[in-house]
Amino acid sequence: MGQKSNSMLFKSLQRSRYKIFVLALLSCTILVTLYHGGSIPVNPAPTGHQHGLGWDSTSPDIFSSKAKPLPSVLVDKEIERGIYGGAGDKAHLGGFTELDLGGISPSVWSTMIRYVGVKSLVDLGCGKGVSTSWFLAHGVDATCAEGSHDAVTQSLLPPSKIVEHDFTRGPWWPDKTVDAVWCVEFSEHVQRQYIQNYATVFKKAAVVFVSHSNWGGWHHAEVHDDRWWILKYESFGLRYSQALTDLVRRKAKEDSGHQTPMDDKDGKPKKYTAEHVAYRMLVFLNPEVAGRAEHQHLFAEPGCYEKKGEMEWYSERGGLNYDCGGLTSQGKTNPKEKVEALPQAYMPLKLTREMDEEWELLIFGRTSDQAAQSRSQSAGGQSDDGV
């Protein structure tokens, strides 16, 4: 009888201890819940890397930290490069030429400003700064990022607009987000183990304009078709835009065959080809940046309807628009319009012929008008000699 009573007492004590343990655990849970604002955090995401390229511990936080440029390491042994620049650079750098007319497209650049609304930009793999200089001359806050020290020493740009960085040494990104990245004749030169190092630049931009190559060339380490690049860049969170890609390629084809102010060695006008842009450029959106308040001026198509017609970019609805509160295509105000004008910050930059001439003088040494006049005089002189 005594043994039975002792056994029951022991079991009772065990149940009491269990209840006390459960109550203590419950009390701790309630305290934790109150401390976290009424909800229990489950599998919280790692802090410090929410805005990098992934959730792993090696991804840089590109939105709250600054990148340190890492210039290329020069070599003593000279490398035979043929027509390509890069003296003193390592083999993976260089690859630029004196003037690549296949990557120049003023029609695309003006569309980027007038339609897309670009006001700030990083020119990634900018070489000597030919395209960067166009954007600067037309009022864009542009920065040139280049890995070749040889290209930087020959740059057309002021030093304050150049960042010298070799992406095989690590990532770099601009301090602030930008409206766009312009990246031509660059991606094919950077092998895939380093792509994540320049993807940080793309991730700081709202819209990315990037070309690729379909053939060989100096250090062409990644030659693929459109599909491969779309998959690769979308893996970083970018979204491919077929509409903008089609627009850019169509605009580039408008430049193809147009005369530049420069003549070849035979005295004949050199012509824009723009083939890198017309056939191999892809355009991506980055929602993480494009959705920010400071980039809401992008996509600057006028908003007030004027009349039936075809827009110069795209208009599936068959209508022409004008800027609300402004003048129609006839240079008149619309008395029926009751819509207020947009704030000036939402308006695209104004482009002028003087801006074009400033850039032409820098790149070609004369303007298109001066070239046309000179050619006309030469043609007249040849005709007189033949009479």
UniProtKB/TrEMBL annotation:
GO molecular function, one term: S-adenosylmethionine-dependent methyltransferase activity
The keyword 4Fe-4S appears for this protein: no
InterPro entries for the chain: Methyltransf_11 (IPR013216), SAM-dependent_MTases_sf (IPR029063)
Region of interest (Disordered), residue spans: 368-387
Location of the Methyltransferase type domain: 122-206
SUPFAM superfamilies membership: S-adenosyl-L-methionine-dependent methyltransferases (SSF53335)
Transmembrane regions listed in the UniProt entry: 20-38
Keyword Transmembrane helix found: yes
Keywords: Membrane, Transmembrane, Transmembrane helix
Protein name as catalogued: Methyltransferase type 11 domain-containing protein
Organism field: Triparma retinervis
Phylogenetic lineage: Eukaryota, Sar, Stramenopiles, Ochrophyta, Bolidophyceae
